[in-house]
C-alpha cells in the first residue's frame, strides 16, 4: 500500500491540493444555521447531482479507455516492464473505487431530504457540510485518477509514439536474460 502512494505521489498531491482548495472555499461560508443550510442544500443539490453524473461518466469512460491502453501496450514490439501494467491496474482499482463511491453519493443526493417534515432543522447543517465535504473528496479523487492516467499515457506516448529506446518502463537486455 505504501508503494502505491509512493508511485503516485504527484497524483495524490494534486488531489489533496484540489480537495483542500474546494474545502477552503466551503469553509469561507462560515457557520450557518439549520434553516440556512436547508435552503442552501435545496439550491445546491442539482449542482451536486451534476457533479456526480459527470464523475460517474468520466470514470466509466476511463475504465473503458484503459482497455484500449492495454491493447496498445501489448501490441507494441517493445517489452514493457511489469511496473507499467501495475500502474494500469492501480488506475483501474482507484477509478473503480471512485465510480462506486460517487454512485453511492449520487443516490444519497437523490433522497428528497429537504422535503421531509420529520427531520430536525439543526440536522440540515450537518447534512449540508457532509455533502460539501464528500463532493470535495470525490473531486480530489477525480484529479488523482486523471493525474495517474496522465503519467501512464505519457509513458506510452514516449515508448510507442516517440520510440524512446531508453525509457524507464522498457525491459532492457540485462533484465530479459
Secondary structure layout plus pairing:
Elements: H1 2-7, H2 9-27, H3 34-75, H4 82-109, H5 123-161, H6 173-176
Helix pairs in contact: 2-5, 3-4, 3-5, 4-5
Protein architecture, described:
There is one protein chain. By secondary structure, the protein is an all-alpha fold. 78% of the residues lie in helices and 0% in strands. It has six helices and no strands. The longest helix has 42 residues.
State the main characteristics.
177 residues; 6 helices; 78% helix; elongated
**Count of beta strands:** 0
Radius of gyration: 21 Å
If you average the pLDDT, what whole number results? 81
Run of helices and strands: HHHHHH
Structural class designation? mainly alpha
What general outline do the C-alpha atoms trace? elongated
Distance between the termini: 30 Å
Helix fraction by DSSP (H/I, runs of at least 4): over 70%
Number of helices: 6
Beta-strand content bin: under 5%
Can I get a quick summary?
With 177 residues, this protein is mainly alpha-helical.
Amino acid at each position: 500500500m505504501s508503494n502505491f502512494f509512493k508511485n503516485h505521489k504527484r497524483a495524490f498531491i494534486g488531489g489533496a491540493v484540489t480537495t483542500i482548495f474546494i474545502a477552503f472555499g466551503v469553509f469561507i461560508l462560515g457557520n450557518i444555521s439549520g434553516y440556512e443550510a436547508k435552503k442552501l442544500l435545496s439550491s445546491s443539490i442539482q449542482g451536486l447531482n451534476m457533479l456526480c453524473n459527470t464523475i460517474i461518466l468520466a470514470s466509466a469512460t476511463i475504465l473503458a479507455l484503459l482497455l484500449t491502453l492495454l491493447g496498445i501496450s501489448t501490441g507494441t514490439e517493445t517489452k514493457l516492464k511489469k511496473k507499467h501494467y501495475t500502474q494500469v491496474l492501480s488506475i483501474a482499482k482507484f477509478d473503480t473505487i471512485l465510480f462506486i463511491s460517487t454512485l453511492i453519493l449520487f443516490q444519497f443526493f437523490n433522497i428528497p431530504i429537504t422535503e421531509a417534515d420529520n427531520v430536525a432543522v439543526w440536522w440540515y447543517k450537518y447534512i449540508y457540510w457532509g455533502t460539501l465535504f464528500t463532493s470535495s473528496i470525490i473531486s480530489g479523487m477525480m484529479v488523482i485518477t486523471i493525474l495517474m492516467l496522465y503519467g501512464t499515457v505519457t509513458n506510452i506516448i514516449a515508448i510507442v509514439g516517440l520510440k524512446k529506446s531508453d525509457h524507464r518502463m522498457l525491459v532492457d537486455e540485462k533484465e530479459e536474460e
